[in-house]
Design a protein that fits this description.
2 domains; homotetramer; 7-stranded mixed beta sheet; 3-stranded antiparallel beta sheet; 14 helices; alpha/beta; Aspartate Aminotransferase, domain 2
Chain lengths: 333, 333, 333, 333
């Protein structure tokens, strides 16, 4: 029973169907009708005119955006536990041509305005030190916390005052939206975010992510960078078709709701063990090595997270019975 | 009627089925059983132990390989009409960290041993000039010619004697194999090729290409570079499943046979117009602007190729009636 | 007797004196009074407000400028015989993060407006091909020709109309100015040039070149890139002091006049052998292998330049007797 | 009175003389007799065969070495206060093509074997995390501490066992050698160091540093990288001549002795204020803002170092009277 990550979940049947249905469009790259509909579809979601580009991975979405938002000689401020710092194999440095990740700390992998400002203040304004140029936050965070509109807005204020471009890694954006009830517009561009990596793969997509650009001036450059990075698929129609299927009828929200609900079920079984509040589809629990072994013995698959902690991730396709069994098993520890 | 490129052809139904069938494997990245079978499957095709990695585009396959085969301060020798020079948006420079493409000329986009040796000889052996480090050829070439085993072997000899790594861009490898009847082993590693970008997308795949490494020492580094370039898909199983479906029962050869046969039909209708022999699934025809307009007027879609020439590309899914109609139309010009 | 290159000439005694005289300034990097005077000094030479940065090599000057003038995904148009293409070890690719050199041909290493426009026109306006972003010309050229004001202006027009940044590699700028009598302003910014690598090392400097920025918006970024490339010397005062010594009393023009005059003396001895007109301090002569050997036998040191040609370069410090002896020897061949 | 940095000190008169004396050598780049003598001269200092290359800055020396010692996708372990992390404008990322600095902590900017091993252990051995590839330490450290032979050896052991290349930034190597009395060989290659940035500029040189390669296999690649980075000066003879002058008669040790002695004089005046032991030519003192202002009021120039601390750096050319006045002033606070 898979609780180690949502990135291995199945694609939703409607996504698979959309791929099959788009198979006979004889137009290459992103010249097809599906791709052409993305800008409109995301503009509707975000209540403003946006540009949207498909890519196949969150790493590509994040780093293509960051490369366009930060010069090679600049720094990208992010949390020390950020995915771009820990799990992208140095991709930000590769895509940007050597930009530096400048790390800030804070509970739950959240960047706070004070920590951000302090990090900027630590840099001397001279040519010897790499100057901050961009901010990247993850929403929901790597510890499953969702930023409130006010929190993002406060960061946007600091970014503006420091002339930092502002990127959001939304690998689990859907889970954050469902959790807070914030409108997609409020928690992004209205709060100062200029580019969003909008994740679908963990949430029922197969291999399509969207890079949504509120600062549309970034789009043309990123389209070039996408090709140059080998990320312009010749049958890109099937990436666009997936995304449209996920947006259609708010499937993306339904799926996130399912995953979040599963996480809540588990959270309720483990009130004393929670390391962080459960605001999306990830749980971090205080569980001893013996207890972890016991859970694994019952067929549950998950990651240890340091000493005495485990991480559980629920998915849109998680079956209720599995979740119930795990909840019961945890409660019984 | 699409004759502008095979890159917009449909995916084969068995490929679509394979994607759907692999949807419930709960293992991320390339940890799944499908991915695990690639090494074996390609080792069988090539009659030797190889390592094989999936990627989503030919550009990624080419440039990940070249980045591992050429240092940032080295040069990659290729034909001036090579895809890596003309159609990858500078990706070789990006992936390699600034390596130089050193161009050689020759009819039909073929690199000859003499041209290769001469290009190497033009370089002074000092630190002021970029030194040759790798050779990349395209088979079938950008003008639809297939290298013979002897031709590749002769290039392999030069490469060996000059200490050049040797890469083959096989975006249309299947068409070349069908055309020459050469064994995959003879025209690659037995002739000195160390890495092959084995194309499937133009030949019935959806979005999976294979990077086949005869020099298996390259594999671990390329796996890291793949992740770092954002090309490690979390549901990579569906790329592996596609490739396995293409190899299964030699679907890749059947599809290439169909595309090549369609090209031969067209060639027979235009004997006096052929710019190059038709050895794969591309035709370059001498056709005036008026004639081209007339063909387009009948619903045929293709590219002009300089002044007074057009390019036609046939695909595995080209319907016989379409091909016949085009053949008739050309003959009637 | 050294005729192989001016880059090995002595530094002028006033330059050496200036280094010694600046030794006791206790300010690091470019914070000293000498460095502070550069902007003013070059603004006087060029009759407009410029920013000027010292560096130690022409390669650094060229490539720092080009990196700021061309994005990593763009192309720099230059002559196929340009120093940046042939003799900088791929430095443009390194500094720019992978930009491509797009080569144009033309006699005497001169770029012509037609060749420039044609090269731009060959590029499809799509994301698959690297788009032209900058132009770099060398004045005097690698074959010792000097651009007229009108020639540079015509290139500037094309550059403007194509949105190309415009850089001039002036490793032998002094020789070109002396040769044409053009004003430094006319042949640079008034003709559209935005950045000039102003060479001193071949002309009596020891190890200081100036990067003169007519587009002053480039200056701050280049200052950062200079540090990042390890080119911000802590005792930069001695670079600035050299340059000021070269500008003082027009020593740079006097030295170039001496070198050009030596070249003219040689040219007059070899009227039938000249491959190009002699407009600066380089001569390319048709000389057989036997004749070249005979000259070398008399103690003259120079490079062969392909088959049946040799290159001679005169220097500011060339002694009249040496030049006379060589002129006599050539005439006697 | 300059106590803010030794990097602004004068060049030693013998260095200036050496530059003037080498002015008439008509050989370019590093083809001259001075450059040719460097390998031998450093082989004598280090009691083994080494290769030595001149460069003009410590940043260039450090980053050329690190680029050859760490792949673009690897990590360089260093102290969080290391010069390469804080004061080189991201040059390690630029030269290496995007390698990551992985920071370790420890008092006095010293890397300890335990901290090094722990940092390595924190990295998962998979393609998602950047893998450690090199270690760089600074000796003397950025806080003026000198590594003992045993300390370097212990780090060398960890490096060997973890397959890390091992680089030493010796911007103040001379001061460290004088301080510990260790032999240059013992504290470098015999302890596992493969490349040393051997600093001269802070110690009486004008603008020449040496990159000393105990692992001579690195030399040819670094020579290419040096040219490619614009660091191959055409009159490199004058860099070599400087270095030879510094080595001649152990001038480098004499100068360091003078600077260290000046630091000891100051240390004795401020026993209760020392933040770190004074082992080279840097002092970090607890001094209030008012006290700092008082010292500045007397004409002493130095940097604040965080709140309530100042940094003083002595130089080879510091006059005894200046040092005595500062010592008196500190004692009188």
């Amino acid at each position: 029973m898979r609780f180690f990550s949502d990135n291995a979940a199945a694609a939703h049947p409607r996504v698979i169907d959309a791929i099959a249905a788009s198979n006979r469009v004889s137009t290459a790259y992103d010249g097809d009708d599906y791709s052409a509909r993305l800008d409109r579809a995301f503009s509707d979601v975000f209540e403003t005119e946006v540009r949207a580009l498909w890519v196949t991975t969150g790493t590509a979405a994040n780093c293509l955006a960051l490369a366009a938002m930060c010069p090679p000689f600049g720094a990208i401020l992010c949390h020390k536990d950020a995915h771009i710092e820990n799990d992208e194999a140095g991709a930000p440095g590769f895509f940007s041509g050597g930009a530096k990740l400048m790390l800030v700390d804070g509970p739950g992998a959240k960047v706070t305005p004070d920590a951000l400002a302090a990090a900027c203040d630590r840099v001397r304004k001279d040519v010897h030190q790499v100057q901050p140029a961009a901010l990247s936050i993850t929403n929901a965070t790597e510890y499953g916390l969702a930023y409130s509109v006010a929190e993002v807005g406060a960061l946007g204020e600091v970014a503006r005052s420091r002339s930092l471009a502002f990127h959001m890694d939304g690998a689990r954006f859907a889970n954050a939206i469902v959790s807070t009830g914030a409108s997609p517009a409020d928690v992004t561009w209205r709060a100062g975010v200029e580019a969003l990596s909008f994740g679908f793969v963990k949430n029922g997509g197969l291999n399509a992510e969207a890079l949504v650009l509120f600062n549309s001036k970034l789009a043309d450059e990123i389209a070039v960078r996408r090709k140059r990075a080998g990320h312009l698929l010749s049958k890109g129609r099937m990436l666009a078709a997936q995304i449209l299927a996920m947006l259609d009828g708010d499937l993306w929200l339904d799926n996130a709701r399912a995953a979040n609900a599963a996480a809540q079920s588990l959270a309720q079984a483990a009130p004393g063990r929670l390391v962080y509040p459960v605001e999306a589809n990830e749980l971090f629990l205080k569980v001893s090595a013996e207890e972890a072994a016991a859970l694994r013995g019952q067929g549950f698959d998950f990651y240890d997270w340091g000493v005495g902690e485990i991480r559980l991730v629920t998915s849109w396709d998680q079956q209720g019975a599995e979740v119930d069994r795990l909840a019961t098993a945890i409660a019984a520890l």
